[in-house]
């Protein structure tokens, strides 16, 4: 009797194994026939699973739009900040569901029956015009009204990962993701980048984030120090008389460029003068500004001082940059020649 039971059990196991093998063979054949369709199905079902996982971790989240093509992403509404540690929790949950080989079914019914049968259904009733509704069910995990293509089992998705989260307005985020081989390859590439970053920063892999935070903090302190020094230098610049115009011209290499731009505009307005500042630690950066009583075209002036430079602006304020450094003595002579031209200056 025991021998007979053992034989039956073995046959059942063999039968189940063969059935699984046939299912996998069928899936592979479908992939070969239509590989793009297979990838899209994985992405579509993956999106359902990932969103359910995210909304489990980030309570109150809702989806507004889904795009599956060259870029897989969904637009969500969530009033709070999204933290990467919590996103990882959602990714782990999604990949656990995928690894559990859960069946994915499509069930059709009337609006009334579907609403009663699936209380956790994700649906936008205002978009459904037909009386019948198709529900895609990931067994014991997610239920969503959807008519798109889907896999028949979560194992087909293989792997899923969030690749980018972008804030696109208050309370709105675009969540990009990848599935299957693309996701696996991207995970390997990003792990490789993280290891390289740790090596460049001469820190351990575990200390990488803290090291980056420390560097960022140091950079912010240095930037504030440079801006303060720039303001000090600006306050000591003295004007020169060039062709009857009060001109503040100075090479302030090493200064903060954003502070230079603001200082040039402010000084030109307060002193009703022409201001030309140059910063050229790396490339040459030039800013020119003029006071309200001076009719001087700063866009034309920067082209005279830095002919090969790229930039632009308005008559009262212009910028230019170039790989060629500026000789201050030569720049003053070019300004002199420029101011000698007719109609460059109007008496105040």
Brief account:
The protein has two domains: about 15-200, Threonyl-tRNA Synthetase, Chain A, domain 2, CATH 3.30.980.10; about 240-340, Diaminopimelate Epimerase, Chain A, domain 1 (Roll), CATH 3.10.310.40.
Q: How is this structure best described in words?
A:
This protein has 348 residues and is an alpha+beta fold. It folds into 2 domains: 13-200, 2-Layer Sandwich (Threonyl-tRNA Synthetase, Chain A, domain 2), CATH 3.30.980; 239-340, Diaminopimelate Epimerase, Chain A, domain 1. Helix content is 47%, strand content 23%. The protein is built from 9 helices and 13 strands. It has helices at residues 2-33, 35-57, 84-99, 111-117, 180-200, 208-235, 257-271, 298-305, 328-340; strands at residues 62-67, 73-77, 104-110, 132-138, 142-145, 160-167, 172-179, 240-242, 245-251, 274-279, 284-290, 310-314, 317-322. A 6-stranded mixed β-sheet has the order 8-9-10-11-13-12, with helices on both faces. It has a 4-stranded antiparallel β-sheet with strand order 1-2-7-6. A 3-stranded antiparallel β-sheet has the order 3-4-5. Helix 1 (2-33) packs across helix 2 (35-57) and helix 2 (35-57) crosses helix 3. The longest helix is centred in the first third of the chain and has 32 residues, at 2-33. The radius of gyration is 33 Å and the shape is elongated.
